């Protein structure tokens, strides 16, 4: 019998060997260098441990199929050095790993910071669509558009060297590992488990983050019992790179004041920490112009029993599935005669049905494509073929749906559907120059 060992991660340590360990987890498509500008200050108090995701930064290309797999690999790496207790700060996918650690291995975690994170990434199905692009065209299209997702336009224009560094960082990632990480993010959903996160948590987000923005951050703060929110102005998704001084200041303040005592195995108890410290607002100006974000207490959580009006959820889901351009066009064309109907669609089709947890969006796309073929609704079929790609269906899977429909809905209907879907898939999977 052979024993299967958990693969370890590519890593590096910085700072004094006798200091408490603080782990910095990277975002999808980045390397540990995204934290370079935080390390000089953090090593004054902590032994900083950074790691690369599989296939990132030259790390061995052993794809990880889930966030749980990544957390297991991280712990296996730490176990080699006898690191049992640590603080953890992670950005985006790195934040998902932090939540997984807090839920599955709470005895290892002393304090947590979640940066640009979400309990279920608001555009999670988009990650599956990225797989379509990567499988067809490689990582170059994703690399070229990464700065648009990661940075504000002003920063990208003012910092061309950092922008090019970001592009090259993605471009040199192993495609198979990137796709696997996308699948891990798409499947990640801990919304129902947030109340079990038992460590002091800082939720940090850039004010202009269009990927996992302030709305997702507030969801985390509302669900985690001991959480504080910090919104960094003038920053997008990769906020540690865009506003390094502000992020460093927030991390130092959080981990200096919120480090939960270790579990005592001899008594079976954990010491109960005192009232969480709320850091006062800085009143004096910093030595250089840096945006300062206050760590604020969580706002009262809204009722979880249900929502009075599903319109807001509906418009969010409708945009995620169909895309902003399509939704904007439809709503712009809705005059007084059609406006009420569009509101009805948003509220009930998208806010009630598409947002139900019983089926994932891939399954809903399969059902929708089949129904549209059966009804001969070719105009709607085009937009929902695009939606199916966004929801994670590959072109091959869409083909199988249409072949299945040919048997049960009729060959003529499927023939027309194939023409529509073929055109859309060519448009969506061809990289833009």
**What is the string of helix and strand elements?**
EEHEHEHEHHHHHEHEHHEEEHHHHHHH
Low-confidence stretches: 267-290, 298-307
Number of helices: 18
Residue share in β-strands: 5-15%
How can the largest sheet be summarized?
8 strands, mixed
Q: Kindly state the mean pLDDT as a whole number?
A: 86
Structural class by SSE content: alpha/beta
Q: Share of helix among residues?
A: 40-55%
Distance between the terminal alpha carbons, to the nearest Å? 53 Å
Shape: globular
Keywords:
433 residues; globular
Helix-strand layout with pairing:
Layout: E1 10-14, E2 21-25, H1 39-42, E3 47-52, H2 67-79, E4 86-91, H3 93-104, E5 109-115, H4 124-137, H5 140-150, H6 153-158, H7 160-171, H8 175-187, E6 201-206, H9 214-223, E7 227-232, H10 239-242, H11 244-257, E8 263-264, E9 269-270, E10 296-297, H12 311-322, H13 324-333, H14 336-354, H15 361-375, H16 378-390, H17 395-409, H18 411-429
What features would you describe in this structure?
The chain has about 425 residues and is α/β, with parallel strands linked by helices. Helices cover about 50% and strands about 10% of the residues. It contains 18 helices and ten strands. The protein has helices spanning about 40, 65-80, 95-105, 125-135, 140-150, 155-160, 160-170, 175-185, 215-225, 240, 245-255, 310-320, 325-335, 335-355, 360-375, 380-390, 395-410, 410-430, and strands at about 10-15, 20-25, 45-50, 85-90, 110-115, 200-205, 225-230, 265, 270, 295. It has an eight-stranded mixed β-sheet with strand order 1-3-2-4-5-6-7-10, with helices on both faces. The protein has a two-stranded antiparallel sheet with strand order 8-9. Helix 5 (about 140-150) packs across helix 7, helix 12 crosses helix 14 (about 335-355) and helix 15 packs across helix 17. It is globular, with a radius of gyration of 23 Å.
